[in-house]
Amino acid sequence: MSWTRKILRVNLTEGTCTPEPLNMEWANEYLGQRGLASKYLIEEIDPNCDPLSPDNKMIMATGPLTGTMASTGGRYAVITKGALTGAIACSNSGGFLGNEMKNAGWDMIIFEGKSPEPVYLYIENDLAELKPADAIWGKSVWETDDLLHQIHQDPQLRVACVGRSAEAGCLYAGIINDKHRAAGRSGVGTVMASKNLKAVAIRGTLGVGNLKDPAAFLQAVSDGKAVLAENAVTGQGLPAYGTQVLMNVINGIGALPARNMKDVGFEGAENISGEAMHEPRPSDGKPNLTTNAACFGCTIACGRISTIDKGHFSVANKPEYWGASGGLEYEAAWALGADTGVDDLDALTYANFLCNEDGYDPISFGCTVAAAMELFERGKITTEQTGGVELKFGSAEALCRMAELVSKGEGFGVDLGMGSKRLCEKYDSPELSMTVKGQEFPAYDPRGIQGMGLSYATSNRGACHLRGYTVASEVLGIPVKTDPVVTEGKAELVKAFQDATALVDSSGLCLFTTFAWSMENIAPQIDGACEGDWSVEKCLEVGERIWNMERDFNKAAGITGADDNLPKRLLTEPAKSGPTEGQVSRLGDMLPEYYELRGWTTEGEVTDETRQRLGL
């Protein structure tokens, strides 16, 4: 069955930890992780609640394949009403915590209420208790992780925690596990800190078993691993360069946004690319990249571990940053680099270290700094607001200084911690915020990749590449090649990617497997592990059910079809140069067809017929 059939309910207000049986009827309809936890959240909270009030709940959830032998089966997710967006939030993370939670015997942990004092949750198999967090409150993620290992004297303890940015109220703070893996987007860490919950520390030794058909499961897993190994992306590109393999590729096709998306294409892309991370630095002869790394059970190993030049201005007098830590991935390198106009690889790495150390999303941070740089360029803010910093595009020093301020919630870092939407509204320039539903864009310009514009606009958690990654088809030709600047057929493509992604996110597997796997590879693994019939058709229906359920929650929270939009800049300002010169996003050509394919009204509302068909 692969589910443990147990959830832990933690009432922070009362200080209680109570086990409950998993609702297996819901598990059969929503599978696990993103889908199942969202079902619990939606049933238990008022969609109009303040995300930072005790009325909001936060759920940490595994999927049924988490902790199994399935390649990449180490994922867990955090589901809540997002602090940044007010929409439903599901932020997915790798590393080792998901496996540890499953091995301790828990499918999900539901946090409700608010503790009167800072606490952390300690779990050792069936033992679960809240402990005072006096010694770790106010500490960074790295300090918190080290202190909890010292307190419990267990090197195998796995820790997920928030940093100082979340405590200071940064609206895009994440939850960091294993020091540099993150449930990073939408402000899930901000919600955690608002509950006076600093950390979750887990040790599990029970193992994961009870597979429905062990022989069939192991065969499906073995077949899947062979496919991953033979694929050019999962077997070669990602292990060698990580997601940073995309920097030069996306820039080359004219779809890399730059300088708060004023430009499409960045002349410094090669300097901050995956290839550049491999090159020895002239200053010390060592490359930025130290090694690659894998999450639990992963045969791809796309993670980056990097080291900064000891003589670099950012760390020259800070030996605590001379050791290797989580390196740049593509989205972070773009947001911290191309979007701010900075092509100093070590400066980007330092800012990324700070995002890991103090637990905030490098995508939202970089994009917010980029918006601030354009505000500075236009005279909307001055050195009076920035504490004397010349906040100019291309300034590596300014980028690093802003990261330090956001980490501690000091000075102009408080404004930056609001996110791009609120920052630009504060300084009377809402049009400069490159966001959808309040969440900052990832690293693909909708003027150069049309399907991604539709995917961003309709995403249930705001602008996000991981809710319908049509780049796979439009750029990489997976599973079929489509023209990135053509709108025909993109509505169907986006819907298919969104539904499939919802299912993968609910399984406990990593989405990167889908560069090589189709649902024909994934469904047999779920079917071998989980009771019931998990055909390809059922899996895709579950994904569609999850998508529509999330949409209904957002509607109840006040987010409507009018929010399925893109910033005016992307719709009206053509790309100035490069392969996509003259292109704008033609969202309006795709949206009506998308609504029709979804079975929604022309205003983007789920119809009763669609709800009935999906059992909502």
UniProtKB/TrEMBL annotation:
Pfam families: AFOR_C, AFOR_N
Cofactors demanded by this protein: [4Fe-4S] cluster; tungstopterin
Record keywords: 4Fe-4S, Iron, Iron-sulfur, Metal-binding, Oxidoreductase
Protein's name in the database: Aldehyde ferredoxin oxidoreductase
Origin species: Thiolapillus brandeum
Matching Gene3D superfamilies: Aldehyde Ferredoxin Oxidoreductase Protein, subunit A, domain 2, Aldehyde Ferredoxin Oxidoreductase Protein, subunit A, domain 3, Aldehyde ferredoxin oxidoreductase, N-terminal domain
Record GO terms (molecular function): 4 iron, 4 sulfur cluster binding; electron transfer activity; metal ion binding; oxidoreductase activity, acting on the aldehyde or oxo group of donors, iron-sulfur protein as acceptor
Family assignment from sequence similarity: Belongs to the AOR/FOR family.
Region Disordered, annotated ranges: 564-584
